[in-house]
Fold:
Amino acid sequence: MKGHLSVTKMLAQVKYCDSIHSTCFPFIYLVAAAVTEYITNAFCVDYIQRLHGLIPMKCLFVYKTASLDITDPMGIMCLIANVKKHGHESDLFLTNLEPNLFKAVAEYKPDVIGFSVTSGSEPYYLELIRRLRKHAKFISILGGPHPTFFPEIIDEPEVDIICRGEGDDAIVALLNKMQAGEDYSMLPNLWVKKNGEVIKNQIMPLNHSLDSLPFPDRASFLKYYAYAHSSVKHFLAGRGCPYDCAYCFNHKLKKMYREEANETQYCRLRSVENVVQELEEVRKNYPLKIVYFHDDLFIMNRVWLKEFAEVYSKRVGLPMICYVRANLVNEEVVKSLKLANCVTIAMGIESGNEELRKIVLNRDMTNAKIVEAADLFHKYGISIMTQNMVGLPDETVENAFETIAVNARVKPAYAWASIFQPYPRTALWHYCVKKGYLDATHKQHASYQVESPINKGQTKREFENLHKFFALCIEFPSLIPLARRLIKWPNNILYNLIYRGFKGYTHIFRLKMSSGELGFFVYLWGIMLYKLRRAIGRTY
Ligand code: B12
Ligand code: SF4
Structure:
């Protein structure tokens, strides 16, 4: 570039000295030289940098948090970290908290925007892309559970690429190809639109060395007060679950990896050292009081758990929360968790009716085993959050009260329940379609706390209402006769307020699952402001 600059200067000088020049010639030459120089500089730099793959690609993620939730979206954080590690730029905008989303996206000028999509939230994201396109030019890529099981969402005009399964390597491969100006339509895990056609690629085997991945990125959240100040942080010690519960996505994903990639090692753990190093690093750089592991099944490997407890107790020692499965719980496991300062565990009961649990949910586990596990946690002073569903196929309202009875025996600090949603293409979704509970074309609702999508006749409303009184009935069993009456009334806002109020109280003060500090209230304030802004069209 320097050489080019001096040539244009020389040219201008030579012409200036020429005997035939008139008074305006030097000026014209100078302007012409400056313009040529500017254009060639700009183009040459850009061209040469692209030729050598020097310009980092800009990959933005735009994500809508679940309402009143400040759970870290670990999947996106893993992707951002890996994208940055490989020399590209990446950031995250939260649609609910970004003061002016469209302006922020336009200013960021992303090459690619990634969206992490669960079933039910796809209409939201398609509309969002439509609106974003008016403010920026970008390639859209959808990943996460919905495109994984519904890759045909690529047929929507808003979608350019979808990613099936884990995306850590796929997103980096895509950005590298774009950077080099090469064809990216043949990359594993991706379905790509090209010249009006969709190129469908197989998935690649899973990454078995999770330690090779960078720690999930937390820096992108610092711009959001509630996230930056929340002292409850989420972590992943591994990936996968060995079980095949009929309503969960795991059996489906496992099958997809087995059939397409010949993958047999679906469950993977990071080394204890690697996990503890991340915890130490996060504690050093961010507020951290509660360590919340979001692994589907934290206790899946007892040997690993024992080693983890020993190292964690010495080097971290902060209160910890994780997910367990009753059939894997014994005294040794509970002792390890206690040593690791586990204060709360989440454990699925799902249905109190053993037959439903075994046959419909494919969870072969007795009530006695669940109670035995719960008693062990009580013995060691670890609080329990149970996980349950109401409105299951073949379930009667009486069966749902059986679930309440088993929970009452377990004595959880909070009995969490969702209204059953058949997630598309899981075994239970097929069962619902086969038995006429669901039309195969039914569009998934974005939340499992609002309505029952399956055909339960007149009892539909009762299940939806019972969901609101579920935890209270377990806390105060004397309310059960009243609840039996109230659930027959129409759904109303008061039931919802009671439900949210009790849930919020237990999550903040008993289970320590949400940050009970100022940050949470500021977050609520943020939501109110967001709603106001949305009302006046400032954000989405
Ligand atoms: C923690 C969690 C939450 C948290 C955080 C959500 C989040 N986005 O991470 C909270 C509590 C907020 C939550 C809420 C909900 N959740 Co949730 N959640 C989970 C859970 C237990 C762990 C998620 C996780 O961290 N996984 C580990 C990471 C590494 O995997 P990942 O997120 O799938 O990301 C990888 C790939 O999918 C892919 N990928 C993901 N996004 C993208 C984007 C791009 C562009 C690319 C290229 C790749 C890519 O690459 C990532 C790295 O490999 C999963 C079960 C599970 N084990 O995954 C359920 C799960 C994702 N949740 C589920 C559901 C249904 C919900 C809700 C709809 C429930 C509701 N409210 O009614 C909401 C939706 C909220 C939302 N905005 O998306 C379902 C989704 C089922 C489906 N078919 O869509 C799951 C699979 C559980 C299940 N029932 O089977 N959830
Ligand atoms: S144990 Fe939990 S995570 Fe594992 S398959 Fe069953 S529901 Fe899914």
In short: Confidence is low (pLDDT under 50) at residues 1-20. Residues 241, 243-245, 248, 250, 296-297, 325, 348 surround iron/sulfur cluster (ligand 2) (CB under 6 Å). The domain at 231-514 is CATH 3.80.30.20 (pyruvate-formate lyase- activating enzyme). The two ends are 44 Å apart (CA to CA).
